[in-house]
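User: Here's a structure from my thesis project, written as structure tokens. My advisor, Dr. K., wants to see whether a designed sequence matches the one we expressed. Can you design one independently, without my sequence as a hint?
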């Protein structure tokens, strides 16, 4: 006799459950790999951003200090725009006209192309690096670079012009500047006026600058050393 009973086709419930379990494990594994890759990419991006900030800060300090301008005035006035000052931490003062910014380093140097004014290229300006308390973090600062061309200072015109400024870095917790004299001695403060009065070289031989920032809950720091080339200026009377 021929058996006409139908033969069952398709998957059983057990087979479906096993297939779903295998697919789930594969998906979980793929998601874990994908999530790991995203974390690595995010970490690399953050590191690249921090490297970019550190390179930018280092470049600005280096370009400014390598173009530092100074000449002896004899009886140099206290408020001379050529005065080179690195105040000690306990002596740091506020930028004139601004009650919040604290001066860390100030000197005269060439104007920066960052402000996009071609007419200022090659002009000398007063340069100030300052820390401004952050509005969002009680123990953090903004690192500012401020400049004011000599031609716009109030001692050259009737009205004082505002300082131009850019934010160089945020979340800065400290900025330390050490100065080295030509004899190799280290100083935590420097004043070209005092050096000139004592008959010593007015410009430091080198600077060491260390910046500390808070990044993603951890402290990141970097430092750079910049040698200042000796500068000798001579002036000749034009003859026809």
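Assistant: Designed independently from the structure alone:
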């Amino acid at each position: 006799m021929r058996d006409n009973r139908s033969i069952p086709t398709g998957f059983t419930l057990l087979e479906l459950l096993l297939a779903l379990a295998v697919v789930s494990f594969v998906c979980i594994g793929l998601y874990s790999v994908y999530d790991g890759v995203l974390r690595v990419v995010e970490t690399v991006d953050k590191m690249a951003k921090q490297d970019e900030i550190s390179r930018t800060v280092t470049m600005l300090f280096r370009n400014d200090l390598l173009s530092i301008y100074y000449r002896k005035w004899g009886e140099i006035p206290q408020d001379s725009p050529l005065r080179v000052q690195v105040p000690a931490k306990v002596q740091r003062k506020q930028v004139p006209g601004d009650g919040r910014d604290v001066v860390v380093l100030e000197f005269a140097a060439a104007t920066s192309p960052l402000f996009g004014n071609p007419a200022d290229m090659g002009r000398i300006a007063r340069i100030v690096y300052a820390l401004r308390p952050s509005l969002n973090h009680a123990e953090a600062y903004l690192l500012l670079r401020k400049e004011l061309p000599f031609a716009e200072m109030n001692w050259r015109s009737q009205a004082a012009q505002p300082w131009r400024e850019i934010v160089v870095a945020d979340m800065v917790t400290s900025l330390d500047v050490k100065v080295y004299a030509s004899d190799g001695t280290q100083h935590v403060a420097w004043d070209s006026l005092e050096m000139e009065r004592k008959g010593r070289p007015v410009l430091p031989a080198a600077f060491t600058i260390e910046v500390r920032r808070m990044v993603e809950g951890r402290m990141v720091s970097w430092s750079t050393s910049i040698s200042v080339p000796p500068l000798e200026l001579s002036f000749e009377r034009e003859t026809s």
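When you compare it with your expressed construct, this may help: The two ends are 133 Å apart (CA to CA).
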